């Protein structure tokens, strides 16, 4: 866990006593799914032993479970709110992030060369790319112009072309939750957090709620080659989610996601502070369109969590002028939006983060020992 005192109330949404939330807690017996309604947490393991199963039983299961008392006095720590869901992510869904990916590519992962390239690209395509709708005839015309100018990039293809970038961010059960340490590779010298909203999609392909996520990125690795995306994105403790999934209802809908302002603060051990924001109303592709493209012709029997991308692109210098931002061990990263709460994590190297040793076999063994596998898909009525 991260150093310094962090209470559960530091994570919770402003109106946590309203609405319906889904999550996971670490009990003395093992991880358990919970539902939170009217500010009370309910252990749902006797109804559905995994979040993946519980997600398919809503809304019927919303009235069941064993009370654990008020959420703010919960004795068990919050875990990442998903378990067996595949963790997917969409990249380059905002114009600014598209430009930054092009810069990474042109600079070959060299932060010192990025400033000059950034200025040239913004001057040539910054205005037009922000206004174009992906996959339209206007986007095709812009693509032709950029190719003619020698400015085309694979990143611009997914920014304004018909097909979104969708990749696998992390294996199932590998994501960490609020208060946990997040990891960057020890051999990375240019990296950053990516504050995002994450949709929870059930086995039927329906988006049922949203949470916050940190899609930690290694800019030097991906900048050297897009084929290094896996190394840039998927490392020990490099994916954090939480604090809870807020389930969609009459009071919280996909429109709240479309209009959310996601704030980011980074407080460094040397007193450095960076603030940023990702405005979801500037996303180039609608969140439900990203869900549709992720589903494609595939089937996710346990559902999936989908990172929607970020507008945030850190260019503020931290040490040397012109080198921009990169993490230091000990950075405290807080991602927040009022209706989803705050996701707080402390940066360490992936090799120093807690080892990921609780996988599918460990989960199934734990659930079997607790006698919960025989209770799966219980009728919540």
TrEMBL record:
Entry keywords, A to Z: Hydrolase, Metal-binding
A single GO molecular function term of this UniProt record: metal ion binding
Protein's UniProt keywords contain Hydrolase: yes
Chain ranges of the Fumarylacetoacetase-like C-terminal domain: 167-348
Gene Ontology annotations of biological process type: small molecule metabolic process
A UniProt-annotated Pfam family: FAA_hydrolase
Keyword Oxidoreductase: no
Family to which the UniProt record says this protein belongs: Belongs to the FAH family.
Stated name of the protein: Fumarylacetoacetate hydrolase
Protein source organism: Sphingobium lactosutens DS20
């Amino acid at each position: 866990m991260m150093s310094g005192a962090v209470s559960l109330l530091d994570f919770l949404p402003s109106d946590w006593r309203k609405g319906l939330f889904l999550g996971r807690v670490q009990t003395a017996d093992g991880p358990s799914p919970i539902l939170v309604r009217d500010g009370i947490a309910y252990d749902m393991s006797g109804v559905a032993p995994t979040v993946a199963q519980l997600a398919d039983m809503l809304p019927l299961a919303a009235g069941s479970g064993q009370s654990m008392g008020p959420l703010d006095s919960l004795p068990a720590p919050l875990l990442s709110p998903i378990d067996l869901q595949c963790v997917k992510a969409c990249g380059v869904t905002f114009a600014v992030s598209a430009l930054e990916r092009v810069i990474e590519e042109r600079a070959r992962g060299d932060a010192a060369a990025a400033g000059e390239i950034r200025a040239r690209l913004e001057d040539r395509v910054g205005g037009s790319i922000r206004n174009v709708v992906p996959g339209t005839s206007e986007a095709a015309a812009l693509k032709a112009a950029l190719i003619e100018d020698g400015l085309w990039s694979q990143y611009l293809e997914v920014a304004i072309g018909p097909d979104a970038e969708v990749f696998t961010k992390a294996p199932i059960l590998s994501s960490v939750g609020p208060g946990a340490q997040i990891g960057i590779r020890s051999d990375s010298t240019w990296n950053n957090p990516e504050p995002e909203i994450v949709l929870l999609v059930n086995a039927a392909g329906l988006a049922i709620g949203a949470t916050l996520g940190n899609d930690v990125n290694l800019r030097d690795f991906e900048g050297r080659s897009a084929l290094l995306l896996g190394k840039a994105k998927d490392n020990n403790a490099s994916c954090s989610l939480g604090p809870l999934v807020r389930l969609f209802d009459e009071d919280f809908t996909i429109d709240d996601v479309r209009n959310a302002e996601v704030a980011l603060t980074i407080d460094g051990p040397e007193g450095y502070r960076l603030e940023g924001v990702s405005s979801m109303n500037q996303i180039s592709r609608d969140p439900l369109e990203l869900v549709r493209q992720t589903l494609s012709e595939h089937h996710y029997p346990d559902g999936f969590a989908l990172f929607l991308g970020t507008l945030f692109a850190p260019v503020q210098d931290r040490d040397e002028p012109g080198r921009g931002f990169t993490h230091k061990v000990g950075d405290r990263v807080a991602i927040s939006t009022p209706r989803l709460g705050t996701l707080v994590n402390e940066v360490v190297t992936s090799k120093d983060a807690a080892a990921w040793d609780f996988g599918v076999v460990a989960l199934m063994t734990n659930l079997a020992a607790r006698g919960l596998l025989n209770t799966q898909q219980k009728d919540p009525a």
